[in-house]
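Can't paste images in this forum, so I'm doing it all in text. The chain is below; anyone willing to post the predicted structure tokens underneath?
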Amino acid sequence: MAEEKIKAVRPAKAKKLADPIAASIDIASQEMIARAQTLGVETIFDRAMNMKPCNIGVQGICCKNCSMGPCRLPLPKGGIEGEDTRKGLCGATANTIAARNFVRMIAAGAAAHSDHGRSVAEVFLSAARKETDDYQIKDVEKLLAVAPHLGVATTVEVDGEVLDRDIDEIALEFAEKALAEWGKPEGELLYAKRAPEALYKKWKEAGVVPRNIDREIVELMHRTHMGVDQDYKNLMKQGTRAAIGDGWGGSMLATDQQDIMFGTPYPLHAEANIGVMKEDHVNVVIHGHEPVLSEMIVAAAQTDEMINYAKSKGANGIQLSGLCCTANEILQRHGIPPAGNFLQQELVIVTGACDAMVVDVQCVMQNLANVAKCFHTKLITTHPIAKMEQENVIHIEFDEHHALEDAKRILKLAIDNFQNRDAEIMIPKHKSTQIAGFGVESIKYHLGGTFRGDYYTLNDNIINGRIRGGAGVVGCNNARQQHNNGCIAMIKELIKNDVIVLTTGCNAIACSTEGLLTPESAAVHCGAGLAEVCDTVGIPPVLHLGSCVDNSRILLALTEMVKAGGLGNDISELPAAGSAPEWMSEKAISIGHYFVVSGVYTVFGGMLPTTGAPVFQDYLFKEFENKFGGMWDMVDDPIAHAHAIIAHIDKKRKALGIDKARERVMMDFAARQAL
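Text version of the structure:
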């Protein structure tokens, strides 16, 4: 039966096949790529061998914003000498075209993260109004901590006495004000003031503080319409507003409200990689980015009702696992193991053991439907804005007002499908252990304990040289690069040189499968200084901070470092950098830009769509540093990529006067009192 299904969807003409070892450094993935090829199941790795990227499009100099085009402006052989005379039919220059393409990517990326945030805000409002019993305020402390940033008072004065406000009142006002941040008619983004004062002042002087989240995205799309904004610097100004609205707005609000509803993550132990699947269990793989549904699936899967139903169908239980950022969301709060990252999504089905894959939004390949046809797997879409055209895809629209009911319905489909397995099961034996679930709050605790939690300890170890600096390494996988190699090789080089790494998204999953998310890995991979700190504090050298929307945690961690003192007054003065070695999505461009305009030197691997417009690229790579203290860079080789970051960190250390080794001094009681 399985062979007949595979024959029905197998490409008619023989095509080039990817070399599994060249395609990925992950052994489990190599085994699944080889199995897919043996079965004749096409995956993204084989498609990448047969479809090459457009050389002009990859440089950012193809304009298709009207029907007179596409207008293609290739660089002359030998590059530009003298005046650049390239123009589209309307006269748009290469700089204008490249800038329009770049900021459209910012708009799409900011829209994706911020629409995710809006969905969370709508559910939060339903919970605050008591319209649903399935969601509650779980982390009251987090609510009280972030409420003042939206101007929500946590106390009230009655007859001269200051009293605590009712939590339900605070939650409702916070929910209403949070949702208003997407479309309020006047004012500015309230969370912008969470940035260090010096950075906020730069934004104000440059006129880039967002008015609201949605407006900046809409205006950006308007400006890139044919015949509107034709100044690459002005286009990037609006791109900056939209990116700040993402990082310090939609994404940050999403993270905060998810923490309040689902619980703020704290470090926990889990496993990772395709090997977490179990042959004798119902395997349900949750894929996408919004945790509103996945939280309910986790809750439902733990009920006696669902467990007993699975056993009645011959299974020993229910094994949940995740892909992409939904994986990170359910990992950091529940210890549910990730089965893989972006490029592994088809391979999970190729095991023959995936009884259902449940998807919501973002980074979900349409070819999943074709791979699922080859096996018994039920592919279930759940979001009204994300459906698939293939007939074998089931759509169960999720509604927060009966969330647990929807989750149980989905699980029953998967459980019923357990008995329909019709292919040989092949689950790779490879899996790793990890410690995940770090955040701004838990890092404080690890650094100083319950009563002395502060980023001073981190700053102190940077000042004394045990830690050279920090790097936020985030982002996707890209089938044009060897899967996971750019991330892993680069990070190993960083930690070898005493650079502590904060990671999110698919990069975090790559690190988990490589075993870099355990405290023990520090002794193997780190320089002496970082290894000593990790051993003393009990943390891994690579800290898993969550999903890609949780990059806001990195922004706030950097802000805490500024507040702790000793390393300057702004993020741009810190010995820190950002990186996306294997970026793929438009979200990565938005993320990269909000890090740049927050003052972070940000390096991308692969190719940025700017190389065809050298003047525009120089503006991003050089002049932005004068405006905000951060700038873009592009380095493909992972080792060179790491050393570009290390060189920047060393430059910042020198500017702070902490580039010289310091003698370690044993302090007596009097010296400690003086300190």
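The longest helix spans residues 94-128. The first strand starts at residue 62 and ends at 63.
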